[in-house]
Design a protein that fits this description.
By secondary structure, the protein is mainly beta. It is built from 3 helices and 22 strands.
Length: 423
């Protein structure tokens, strides 16, 4: 009996050894062994914890949106665009309205000059222009604001100031005459068959005044063509066309002209001509033949010289419009730049029609002497051959002439640059 109890410890030892064997526990590892990959190494026992891989979050309505760090700037109505479930940003009072302000600078040339409206009848004593070809090279400064109506159409309100123009440095006239010195211009019958020669002459100098300026208030429309014809250089340049209509105020300042030679009225004492060598000469006028100092039949000649003539300017109100074509470059920080060509028509530039004149003058009374010598003239009178004459003292004569206007169309071909800031 005592012998049977001796087997109990051996039985418990066998059961415990079986329970701790690899067949009973799959996670048990021998002391001093560890797994790295599929290899076993002798060392301390370590527990390998697998690392969980996190899938990237997609920015969609089914996942938490990612935060935007760098992005292409947006403009106009698209400026406040935001991702789903992200709070919309409020950038100010005009945000999300498609509004912008702009400034522009342009420079160009005019294509018409200021000339006498009726050169045949209304010249002031022959002082007027027929050959002024332009008004100079204007510069334009523009300010305004606009609104993006759609992805293709912008509406703009603007004010433009044009300066740098003037009447001109001279009163220029065009003279036409036939070439009589060229024998090839004459046909068998002696008729001149060559076209007339045209010559432009600077007859009078403008000594002061004559500045021209224009103020234009208008509304413009700008239509983008990139959706129709495509952009240029990979989208950097976006072409567009535009039109502006509005109200133009064209101002022409008073200008003063010098007329040193002046003119002569009455019965001229001398006739201007040429001698036998073609040189200028003065011959006594025979219009007063037969007149004598005894019976009071005198001929008179009035000479005007060293004159100044002032044309009074005027501000003219006109309908104006412009046609524009260009392309847009988009910049960062809500900025755009337009480069454009524009043909601008602003109506008439015109003087008031009033002309002020100031001349020094003398009057000469002359008659046929009875003897043809100094003895035949009245006491104190001078003589030239058989002519007696008397010259009065110099005096200043001022006058006013009306309805003598000069005008021209203010048409400008200009190139410019416009900078826009989007709210």
């Amino acid at each position: 009996m005592k012998k049977n109890y001796l087997y109990i410890p051996y039985l418990l030892t066998a059961i415990l050894g079986f329970a701790t064997s690899p067949a009973y526990s799959q996670n048990a590892q021998p002391v001093g062994m560890q797994y790295v990959g599929s290899q076993q190494y002798i060392g301390q026992t370590q527990q390998v914890v697998p690392t969980r891989q996190v899938q990237p979050t997609i920015n969609s309505i089914y996942a938490t949106p990612m935060q935007r760090v760098n992005e292409i700037p947006l403009y106009g109505k698209n400026k406040s665009m935001y991702f789903y479930n992200q709070q919309k940003q409020q950038d100010g009072l005009f945000a999300d309205g498609g509004l912008y302000v702009f400034g522009a600078f342009s420079s160009g040339k005019t294509s018409d000059g200021v000339n006498a409206e009726n050169p045949n009848n209304n010249f002031f004593n022959g002082v007027g222009s027929t050959a002024n070809k332009d008004m100079g090279d204007p510069t334009g400064i523009t300010f305004g604001f606009g609104r993006t109506m759609s992805s293709d159409l912008n509406l703009e309100l603007m004010y433009t100031k044009y300066t740098g123009m003037k009447y001109g440095d001279y009163v220029r006239n065009e003279y036409t005459y036939e070439d009589e010195d060229n024998p090839d211009c004459l046909d068998e019958d002696g008729n001149n068959i060559c076209p007339p020669i045209k010559e432009i002459s600077d007859d009078y100098e403008v000594v002061s005044g004559g500045k021209i300026s224009s103020d234009f208030f208008g509304i413009g429309f700008q239509y983008k063509l990139d959706h129709t014809f495509g952009a240029i250089l990979g989208g950097m340049l976006k072409p567009y066309i535009g039109v502006q209509v509005g109200y133009a105020m064209n101002n022409l300042d008073d200008y003063k002209i010098e007329d040193p030679d002046g003119y002569t009225t009455g019965d001229s004492m001398y006739e201007e001509g040429e001698d036998e060598n073609g040189e200028p000469s003065q011959d006594m006028n025979t219009d007063c033949e037969g007149t004598t100092g005894e019976n009071g039949d005198y001929c008179t000649q009035k000479d005007y010289y060293d004159g100044e003539i002032t044309y009074i300017g005027k501000n003219n109100q006109n309908f104006g419009y412009g046609l524009e074509a260009g392309f847009t470059i988009t910049l960062e920080n809500n900025m755009e730049i337009d480069f454009f060509y524009k043909r601008t028509m602003l109506g008439k530039v015109k003087t008031s029609g009033t002309v002020l004149s100031s001349y020094y003058t003398t009057k000469t009374i002359f008659y046929d002497g009875s003897t043809g010598t100094a003895d035949g003239c009245k006491s104190g009178d001078s003589h030239d051959g058989n002519w007696c004459y008397y010259t009065s003292d110099e005096s200043l004569v001022e006058g006013v002439t009306n309805r003598n206007a000069e005008s021209g169309d203010l048409n400008i071909n200009e190139f410019g640059m416009k900078i826009k800031y989007m709210f």
